[in-house]
Amino acid sequence: MSVIKRIGILTGGGDCPGLNAVIRAVTKTAVGVHGIEVIGFIDGFKGLVEKHYRPLDFKSVSGIGHTGGTILGTTNRDNPFHFLVSQEGEEPVYQDESQRAVNNLKELDIDGLIVIGGDGTLNIAQRFHEMGMPVIGVPKTIDNDLMCTDVTFGFNTAVDTASEALDRLHTTAESHHRVMILEVMGRYAGWIALHAGISGGADVILIPEIPYLMDKIIEKIRFRYQHNKKFSIIVIAEGAAAIDGEMEVQRMVPTSHDPIRLGGIGRIVGQEIEAKTGIETRVTVLGHLQRGGQPIPYDRILSARYGVAAVEAFITGKYGSMVSLQGTEIKTVPLTEAVKEIKRVPADGEIIKTARSIGISFGD
Ligand code: F6P
Predict the structure, then answer these.
(1) 1 within a domain of the structure (yes/no)
(2) pLDDT tens, the chain, 364 aa long
(3) Structural domain range at position 101
(4) 358: CA distance to ligand 1 center in Å?
């Protein structure tokens, strides 16, 4: 039995398939293997600041390993270091509530926190670690843009969803001799677009890491047309931008760690293609379908491994670290390294070369 008596857990940032599988694995390992109590905070760090929580036991995590979402709730707009305390008329009032969060953990007699999140959430976790809070991070995000891990859980499910959407768009594109555009998520990284595009047989993939030239896209579509391929499939990452352009911002969320929400580039590219080629073009924005629903088996297994490893890391005192997949093994890495910068697609990497070899254009 461990000297650790009680740990907290929270899910932060945008939700993603596999969160429940991590919560389940953490709870089963902590309670069942080590006799440690688990307290789940509601809606991420908001629950920690507002002392909103629920105890987790075998019963509360039973049957959730294959489900989407998070039983704890989450938010990608609450930062304890810049916390919205009131909205007087039009003027929002922010305060640093981090000490309140630390105090809450002490009052509840919790030995530390397992934080499941992407770069925003894990950045906050790192700051709490610097304040003396024992913290272990678990890498979550459909965007796959976290450093120091081969893959984040949720990413492969999002790729699966986007790939299935491309299969469906393919048949209707061919029937109607159209250009079909699929805009996918991913923020400033093109991982989802790249993987789904290769898997779904895209002709053009546009990602933030490779700025595009409209003429090159048109060239590719015309080439296909001349060779009796009267339809084309284009996957566009929401962060893609033209060589002389900028990312399309859809909205701002001021309280969020990253206040920018991207979106809209698919429509812009679609309008331009139609105007320049005369070929009917349709745009589908896949949006939050990529975040919802059940995790695929790969993510269920990865989430279980991350959850178990997070408890083990806690027990062995590896505070301030994040569990990570490296090859076939789960290891730990310092949180500081993981959140230093985001992981973007290497523009000259092997997977880009593979895509180019099979005829995919990146619009460059
Ligand atoms: O980070 C996950 C993600 O889904 C991004 O791919 C996307 O840009 C963003 O979150 C959308 O955020 P929201 O749920 O606030 O619209």
Answers:
(1) no
(2) 568 999 999 999 999 999 999 999 999 999 999 999 999 999 999 999 999 999 999 999 999 999 999 999 999 988 999 998 888 777 889 999 999 999 999 999 999 999 999 999 999 999 999 999 999 999 999 999 999 999 999 999 999 999 999 999 999 999 999 999 999 999 999 999 999 999 999 999 999 999 999 999 999 999 999 999 999 999 999 999 999 999 999 999 888 888 999 999 999 999 999 999 999 999 999 999 999 999 999 999 999 999 999 999 999 999 999 999 999 999 999 999 999 999 999 999 999 999 999 999 999 9
(3) 6-153+295-338
(4) 30
Which residues on neighbouring strands pair with residue 131, listed in sequence order? none
Q: Ligand 1 centroid to 269 CA: how many Å? A: 21
Q: In terms of pTM, does the model score above 0.90?
A: yes
- Closest-lying ligand 1 atom to the alpha carbon of residue 256: 15
End position of a domain, from candidates 274, 291, 308: 291
Looking at the structure of the chain, the number of domains it has is 2
> Both 212 and 107 in a single domain?
no
Q: Are residues 27 and 89 located together in one domain of the fold?
A: yes
Asked whether residue 259 is assigned to any structural domain, the reply reads: yes
Same domain, 280 and 163: yes
- Catalytic pick among 15, 43, 78, 143: 143
Enumerate the β-bridge partners of residue 281.
179
Task: Tell me if 260 is assigned to some domain.
Answer: yes
Q: From the CB of residue 43, how many other CB atoms can be counted at a distance below 10 Å?
A: 20
From 16, 19, 70, 76, mutation site for ligand 1 pocket: most ligand atoms within 8 A of C-beta = 76
Pocket of ligand 1 from Cβ distances under 6 Å: 14, 76, 118, 141-143, 185-187, 238, 261-262, 291
Active site residue 15: no
Domain match, 203 and 174 both = yes
Which segments within the chain are labelled E, that is strand?
6-11, 37-41, 53-56, 83-88, 91-95, 112-117, 135-139, 179-184, 204-206, 232-237, 249-252, 260-262, 281-285, 321-326, 329-334
